[in-house]
Each structure stands twice: as structure tokens, then as C-alpha cells.
Amino acid sequence: MKEKRTELLVGFFLLISLVVLGGLIIQFGDFKEKFQKTYPLTVVFDDGGGLVKDTEIRLGGVKIGRVAKQPRVNTENYAGAIVDLEIFSDFQIPENARFTIGSSGLLGDALIEISVPSKRTGKFILPGSELIGERSAGLSALASSAENLSAKGQLVLEDVRSALVDLSSAVGKLDQKILHEENLDNFNVAVRQMTEAVEAINSRVLAEDNTDNIRELLANLQSASSNLDTASEKIQPLIERGEKAIASIETGIQKLSTAAEGISSVTDKINNGDGLIPALLTDNELKEELQAFLVNLRRSGILRYRDSSQSDDSKKNKPFAPRSKNLFGGRLN
Q: CA-CA distance, 13 to 39, in Å (whole number)?
């Protein structure tokens, strides 16, 4: 009876030990995460080196998911890798978050870090979304950056070496041509002559007598300027009168032009019209008859007028002397 009780206690103790061991294994292992609910995301990286299945995904240093399976090649452009993620359903990732490949620990194990933007829209990334990841920020990225910097530094050193060669050549030419002893002597002579010229200007042109003359000249110019101002004030009324006279002259010229146009019109009528005056100017016979009429009218008067300009030769040949006549042709004594 005692043996059965002892076996029962040993079996019960063994069962409790196995349960505790299983709980410890589940607690400290990843089995708990296997039973958590997740939602999928897909991220495309330019370089997926170091990522494997079950690689951790961290947000603020806290694990919020894992890589679902081994990354695959991006067959659209054969550049980069497509990584499938499993995010725990308890976590929602804000919109515009950044996915980068980082490293942790001394060995530099790869992981995916999620950076949340400072300005949030209040929206979250939907399950099944395809996102673009950024360049790796781990030790491999540092190594590649170091290689790029080294290559660029080599190019810079070559450029510096070439620049030093050019500078050395320029310094040699400067030393041989510009800084030659003859050029230096000429430069010294030019400096000495310039100094003498400045001293001559200072002693002759800028002497006290010359400066006094210049001051007097400036004073005279100022006085002449004031006189010109006064003269301009006196001349201004004359100018205004001249402007008025010019305006009057322009008015007179306009009137003369109008009168000339009238005279020209009258002259045209006289020359081209049908009246008596145009006939007298063009018809010689009419002119002679009119002269004879006037001669007979002056000799005989209106009452004794005869329509004949021919008289006795003795009277005709006598020079005609004007005489005063009354209204009826009689002579006034």
C-alpha cells in the first residue's frame, strides 16, 4: 500500500515538473508568438542582405512582428528584394512610416526598424499594403558608404595632386618671369617715380597759394551763380512778354494768311471770271472802246456826248489837257 502511494506521489511530482518545464519553454521561447494573430505587409528593399525568415521587426525598440518567409528577388526590375512581413494584430503602423534595415548586437544581426513620422495624419497602413523600404542602415551600409567615400577621396586626392602640379608650374613661371630681377628693378623704379609724382603734386598743385586760389575761384563761381539767378528772375518777365508777342504775331500771321487766301480767290475770279474786269484784261478791242468812251465823255460831257472819238485833226492832234467840268459837261470858269 505504501509502495503504491509512493509511486503515485512520484508520478504526480513528475507531471508537475513537466508542466512547469513546458510553461518555462513556452514563456521564454517564441512559441507564444506563434499563436498570436498577425496581418501581412509587403516591403520592397533595394538591398535585402541579412534578412532571413523570422527576422525581428521593431517599432521604438519593441518587437511587433517578424519576417514571414525568406526574401525573394523583385522580378519586375531584378533590382532589390521583396520581403513579406507579419505584424502582430495588437499593433497598427501609422501612415507614412519608414521601413529601414538596421542591425543589433555586437554581431550586427539584421532587423527591420519602423520609424514613425513626427506629423501624423491619424490614418494607419492597411493590411496587405505594399510599401517601399529605404537603404540599409547597418554595418554593411556603413561598409559600402566607406568604400564610396574611399573612392571619392581617391578622386579628390588625384585632383589635388593635379592642382599642386599646376600650382607648382604657375609658381615657377611667376618666379622666372614676373619676379625676375630686371622686373623687380623696373617695379622699384616705377614705385619711386610714382612717389616723386605724388610729392610734386602735394608740393605744387596742393600748395597753400593754389588752394587759396581755388577757394577764391569757388567763391567767384558762387557769386556768379547768384547773379545768374537774379538775372534770370529779371529776364523771366521779358520772356513772358516775348511769348505773348509771339502769340500775337502768330495771330496776325493767321489773319494775313486768311486775307491772302481771300485776295487769291478774288484774283482767280478776276482772271477766270466772266465780268467786265476780266474782259478788260483780256479783250483789247473792248479796252480801246472804253478808252474812247471816256475821252468823249470828258470832252463833251454827259449831255453833249457824241458816239465818235474822231474829231478834227487839229483837235485830235492837240495834247489833251484835263479840265474841270460840271455835272453836265460844261466847263467851270
A: 41
CA distance 60 to 54: 19
3-state secondary structure 209-226: HHHHHHHHHHHHHHHHHH
d(CA 250, CA 241): 14
**Distance from first CA to last CA of the chain, Å, rounded?**
213
Q: Which helix (H) or strand (E) holds 45?
A: strand 38-45
Q: What HEC string does 80-147 produce? A: CEEEEEEEECCCCCECCCEEEEEEECCCCEEEEEEECCCCCCCCECCCCCEEECCCCCCHHHHHHHHH
Which CA distances in Å does 71 have to 45, 47, 55?
Answer: 10, 10, 11
d(CA 156, CA 150): 10
Tell me which residue of 285, 295, 291 sits closest to 315, measured CA to CA.
295
- Write out pLDDT tens, residues 157-207: 888 888 888 887 877 777 676 666 777 778 788 888 888 888 877 777 666
DSSP structure class, residue 275: S
What is the torsion angle, in degrees rounded to the nearest 10, for the CA atoms of residue 31, residue 36, residue 54 and residue 62? -100
At residue 67, the 3 state secondary structure works out as strand
How far out from the chain centre does Cα 187 lie? 46
**Whole-number Å distance between alpha carbons of 163 and 169:** 10
Instruction: List the grid coordinates of 80.
Output: 532589390
pTM for the model stands at 0.36
Tell me which residue of 115, 130, 120, 125 sits closest to 83, measured CA to CA. 130
| Backbone phi and psi for residue 129, each to the nearest 5 degrees, phi listed first | -75, 150
Is residue 13 within 8 Å of residue 64, measured between CB atoms?
Answer: no
| Among 94, 101, 33, 118, CA closest to 68 | 33
Angle at 59 between CA 95 and CA 137, to 5 degrees: 95
Three-state DSSP state, 41: strand
211-241 residue pLDDT tens = 777 778 888 888 877 877 777 777 777 777 7
